[in-house]
Amino acid sequence: MADSPIGPARADYTDAAEMSQRHTAIWLSSTPDAVLESGAKGASEMTVTIDLNAEAESRLKTAALRRGIKPEVYAKQIIEENLPASDDAVPDQTTLDLLARWDAQDATTDQDEIASRRKELDDLKQAMNENRRQSEGPGSRKIFP
Q: Closest Cα to residue 51, out of 15, 3, 1, 10?
């Protein structure tokens, strides 16, 4: 079994009991023809094995238990939720074009119009802060300071 870029392959560990006493192991592998939980064939699935010390493992298990899920499911959620956006993400050009048209339509250099728009925005902010104060009490956090 070949080594991964982050460490030796699992086959290099000869005593699994000793390994589990020291830490929880993590291994990365890619299986392009894996059958995913949904049953779809041909998709790529990665198996990740992570070395956790006893304290981190305990925290993971406790957090997963609170959510009523298995630790490995919770770890997967944490990873997926914190990954940066894909580089191949395509912006929604139609929406961007629409917003650009609206900006162009609303563009003005008229100082009275600009002042009117600023007052309208300030009034909206005050109304939202007042709504928050009425619903949550006088100590509530202002949305717009």
A: 10
